[in-house]
Specification:
This protein is α/β, with parallel strands linked by helices and 201 residues long. It has a single domain (2-200), classed as 3-Layer(aba) Sandwich (Rossmann fold), CATH 3.40.50. Helices cover 40% and strands 21% of the residues. Helix 1 (14-22) crosses helix 7 and helix 5 crosses helix 6. The structure holds adenosine-5'-diphosphate and the ligand Nc1ccn([C@@H]2O[C@H](COP(=O)(O)O)[C@@H](O)[C@H]2O)c(=O)n1. Residues 10-11, 14, 36, 39, 55-56, 86, 89, 109, 161 line the site of the ligand Nc1ccn([C@@H]2O[C@H](COP(=O)(O)O)[C@@H](O)[C@H]2O)c(=O)n1.
């Protein structure tokens, strides 16, 4: 199994890059795990308490469970990937049965901050988009898809998102094997990653 880690700040285009990679590759050969599925279970907290969580700090992620799941997949067994709700700020209680594939892609803002995970990735990719571009994309996406308003996104951006990005996410470029510039759609970089994957399939 080839495990590819794709990191980068919120709105840089990780999910889009993953979908572009999957597009045209043989169905059922490449699997995806999202770090978002591994936000810690916060059922014991009220909604008001959950809203205040710093979701851009590594401690918000259950990296132990994520690493365990990757090990299980590596041993050719399926996992139950939790489903996360950005509206409820919590896991839904549902899971998605995720089967091992020849290539597994793990994507998320903080996945390169965890040394155990870093060791498991055969290829580490960092997707870069400029800060203003990411904020614009995030604003549009969170308002249209994640049930947020302008004030919520901007307040979260100023209080946690930007400081956490500068402290934890941007420095992870150092560990990347490949950095994909993604201010514009980058078909050349996507084709290179697809070629690497096709060699493995
Ligand atoms: N290269 C790009 N140019 C313009 N818009 C993009 C680009 N990549 C992604 N987007 C858009 O930006 C938003 C955030 O992208 P997404 O892939 O969800 O980012 P991430 O997963 O890194 O948070 C989405 O609405 C997506 O359509
Ligand atoms: N309940 C939550 C959980 C996370 N976030 C934000 O999601 C971002 C990471 O997801 P991407 O798809 O953008 O990579 C992260 O910056 C968190 O702030 C949230 O808003 N609410």
């Amino acid at each position: 199994m080839l495990i590819i880690g794709i990191a980068g700040g919120t709105g840089c285009g990780k999910t889009t890059v993953v979908n572009q990679i999957l597009n045209e590759l043989p169905e059922g050969e490449v699997g995806v795990i999202s770090q978002d599925s591994y936000y810690k279970d916060t059922t014991h907290l009220s909604y008001e308490e959950r809203v205040k969580i710093n979701f851009d700090h590594p401690r918000s992620i259950d990296f132990g469970l994520l690493a365990d799941h990757l090990k299980i997949l590596k041993s050719n067994k399926p996992i139950h990937q939790p489903v996360y709700s950005f509206v409820k700020h919590n896991r839904t209680g549902d899971t998605i049965l995720t089967h091992p594939r020849k290539v597994m892609i793990v994507e998320g803002i903080l996945i390169l901050t965890n040394p155990d995970l870093r060791k498991m990735f055969d290829i580490k990719i960092f997707v870069h988009a400029d800060t203003d571009e990411r904020l614009i994309r995030r604003l549009k996406r969170d308002i249209s898809e994640r049930g947020r308003d302008l004030d919520e996104v901007l307040t979260r951006y100023q209080t946690t998102l930007k400081p956490m990005h500068d402290q934890f996410i941007e420095p992870m470029k150092e560990y990347a094997d490949i950095i994909i510039p993604n201010n514009k759609y980058n078909t050349v970089a996507i084709d290179i990653v697809k070629t690497i994957i096709n060699e493995k399939l």
